Each structure stands twice: as C-alpha cells, then as structure tokens.
Amino acid sequence: MTTDEQLKEIVKQKYSEIALQDKTTNQSSCCGSGCCSTEVYNIMTDEYNDINGYNPDADLGLGCGLPTQFAKIKKGDTVIDLGSGAGNDCFVARAETGETGKVIGIDFTEAMIDKARHNAEKLGYNNVEFRIGDIEKMPVTANAADVIVSNCVLNLVPEKDNVFKEIYRVLKPGGHFSISDVVLVGQLPVELQHDAVMYAGCVSGAVQKSEYLGLIEKNGFKNITLQKEKAIVLPDDILKNYFDEEGLEKFKAGDTGIFSITVYAEKPEACCEPGCCS
User: Fold this and answer.
1) Rama region for 61: left / alpha / beta (φ>0; ψ in -120 to 50; rest)
2) For a Cys-Cys bond, which of 86, 191, 261, 272 suits 242, CB 3.0-4.6 Å?
3) From the centroid of its chain, how far is CA 226?
4) Residue 31 scores a pLDDT above 50
C-alpha cells in the first residue's frame, strides 16, 4: 500500500516535471498529469483571460476554478495561496489587495517556487513572496492571513483534515477562505483509485463532496457556502487507459460524478467573553 509520504513524493516529482511543460500540454491532460488527451480543451480549468492581474507566463493551466474571483479580497489584505504553482492566483490576488496588501504563495515543489519567483521578479512585485513548504505544516505564523485561496490542490493531499486545521490556525479571527477543488459523488472505480498518475492529476486523490464539506465544518468554520459547482467530463481517450470497452460504457452510464467546486467559509471572530469558545 502506498503511504502518505510516498503519495506526496509522487506529486512532488510529477509537478516538478509539470513546471517545465507548457500550458497547452497541461490543459489537454488531467491537471497536467501527463495522461494527455488528443481532444485539446480544458478538462478542468476556467479561463483567466479577462481577470485583472492575470499573467499568461504564470498560468500553467492546472486549476479547476477561479477562487480569487470569489474570495472577497479587499485592499490591504494579507492573502495566502496554497499550492501556488507558477504564481498565477497570487498575481490575481495582488491585483485585488493592491500595493498596500501582501500575498504569500506556498508550494512544496522547488521548480514551481523558482518559476513563481522569476515571474514575480519580471513583474516587479515586491509585496508577493513565495515560500517552499508543506501546506499540512505551513511556514506561516498563526492569525496571519485575512484570506486564503487555493486552486485544485487539496485533493492532492492525503490528509486533508490537516490542511483545514492549518487554514484555521493561519487565518485571522473573522478571516475566510475560497478554495476550488475536485470532489466526487459516488464511488470512483478501482482502476482510477489505484493509479498514481491520476492521483497527481487531481482525480483519484479526490474525496466525496459530503466528506470534503464535512471536514470544513468539523474544523470550526462557519458560513460554509458552495460558490460554484461544475461537472468534469474526462475524455474517452484518457478513460481508455483504465477500462476496456465494456468497462468504459459501464463507467459512463453509472452515477459516479467528478465535480469542480469552489467553497467559501469563515473562521469565527475572536471570543469577547471568557469561556465562550475554546
């Protein structure tokens, strides 16, 4: 059985390779996993082209939503992006928070951090920084962020509960997050569950939608809101790597769904009376 650390190493190695791929290659695969489709279109990504702060050099086509669009970022906010990649969502967040704010990107792949720092240097941004680290143990002090965003990353983490605990720790009281991610409705076939490439490609690491939302509630967040939801349809030429013709038709006719969701939640305000919360 593959351990959590082995899964993390698979993801790290794959995303080191992805950092060197172009956007077209990544968009025609499953989160850049390399299981490429001849049907070149965005399997998961949403278009950033008309969004303020968008920088094409930082867009590797790896997302599954537009969390910054829903994140309610205000001028002067401190924003943290989990799994920041080449920096795309950080630069969009920077356009929202302005020169008086601060944006911190966290990624555990050195190649991605190097690419993001290079992009920030080219843009001349001195209030955007990138830190290498595991989002289960963020290199950030407690109560530091007004807003946390993340785009198609938590599904890659084996222990998602640890990430939500860290998000709670790092957010300021009254702070909030907006996260885009991949979730399931129904049981994913064993063929996909056990494939490491599909894990790095964001699908087999996904959990049930109800479990995902339950983890958010369990960790003390309030005002949990599903901001956006869309179905993800994997092309036949990807699925044929996992199924014969009979198995493919059975999968397509089944009730299993793969969805991209963007979810918002808030950390409660600080207690005003002794004993009102732990």
Assistant:
1) left
2) 191
3) 15
4) no
Contacts of 113 (CB under 8 A, 6+ apart): 107, 130, 131, 132
Cα 149 from Cα 263, distance rounded (Å): 10
> What pTM does this model have?
0.82
Cα dist from 11 to 105, 112, 199, 267, whole Å: 18, 12, 8, 29
How far apart CA 221 and CA 146 sit, in angstroms, is 14
Q: Are 78 and 177 in contact (CB under 8 A)?
A: no
Average pLDDT on 188-214 reads 72
SS3 state at 15: helix
Q: Could you tell me the pLDDT band of residue 188, with boundaries at 50, 70 and 90? A: confident
- Does 16 have pLDDT greater than 90? no
Q: How far apart are CA 193 and CA 2, in angstroms?
A: 12
CA angle 135, 23, 5 (to 5 degrees): 30
